[in-house]
């Protein structure tokens, strides 16, 4: 049995050798040493059922041998060379994305290494194509951690710069706790219409997550992005769909944009495409791609190992029909959470598509919500279930498991969550002051 230094030492080293921006969940974060499909194992051998999949990354399961076999095969044959020479996996992958999966007329792909880099490239492409400088983005979106992608990130906790980028205008998102979603979506459209009427010809693009992930799993009404796209088109502003979290079956369609039956001008991808191996990409139409014609290359973008892995991921998604499975299991998960909502009034809302589902917790006192959410996460972890959290107030339980999650695990997790919500909702002290509101 290998010996590990243990979570306390890992944390200590993080504190000593990392930047203070390093971030983790849990009072006592587990040290994960192994993964196997929907399971993660910590340094003591304790098993966890993973309902977060490394934030929607490991859609095909941890260390899935159908995929790792292909990764290792490529790793031992040709690991890396430069795009100055020709390699096959990256062109095969681009061809496959264009012919089988990308929405609308999106046919050309540029490979890079992460979500941030994909969005950065997409924003640059929009500037090159439109010869305009400014961007539109939604409040509480998250698009990355590089200079420009942080500039279009509307989620305050993920902005580490104190100065808002002067080239970015934020539009209210199609959601507001205090409002009906349809009304919030209409308000968002009205704000967009007004900004475009004022200075529509200054914007290169609007970047949106078709379903906001970190912002709290926000699903707009089906008409919303169609309306956004139509408005943007009037002013020659491109629509960039950030599908970094939603892509590759997560929401029950290959891409979330497929739900809305429109194609963006540019789509960005990362996370699940590599199932844990780093890869990013942005794709667009022939006409828009034509504007990016000066020499540009990424050292590792489209490297044979990542490209071969991504193709194995696509094969596995097909073979196991994971897109349909995501829709089916997501429905079961949402129904189960809605049933819990009837019993536990602290669940204020259940929302999502496919296996991207959020349950918003609201105690009635905003200041208690985040602590309560943490307590639920901690108790779930204790009982062997890892779930995520997100949302502006960090009070949304996030369920984004590998798409291969066995059906019975969903039901078991729901009954464990039922117990946890019954027991761990309030501390004794809080319970005293809230007698009768919830149990
Ligand atoms: N866009 C979205 C929607 C994301 O969720 C994330 C990461 N959580 C990113 C972009 C940034 O991706 P990366 O961390 O790979 O740079």
Automatic annotation (TrEMBL):
This enzyme's EC code(s): 2.6.1.44
Cofactor(s) the protein needs: pyridoxal 5'-phosphate
GO molecular function: alanine-glyoxylate transaminase activity; pyridoxal phosphate binding
Pfam families in the cross-refs: Aminotran_3
CDD domains for this protein: OAT_like
PROSITE patterns assigned to the protein according to its UniProt record, in alphabetical order: AA_TRANSFER_CLASS_3 (PS00600)
UniProt xrefs under InterPro entries: Aminotrans_3 (IPR005814), Aminotrans_3_PPA_site (IPR049704), PyrdxlP-dep_Trfase (IPR015424), PyrdxlP-dep_Trfase_major (IPR015421), PyrdxlP-dep_Trfase_small (IPR015422)
Keywords: Aminotransferase, Pyridoxal phosphate, Transferase, Transit peptide
Main EC class the enzyme belongs to: transferase
Gene3D superfamilies: Aspartate Aminotransferase, domain 1 (3.90.1150.10), Type I PLP-dependent aspartate aminotransferase-like (Major domain) (3.40.640.10)
Stated family: Belongs to the class-III pyridoxal-phosphate-dependent aminotransferase family.
Subunit relationships: Homotetramer.
Protein name in the entry: alanine--glyoxylate transaminase
Gene source species: Paenibacillus agilis
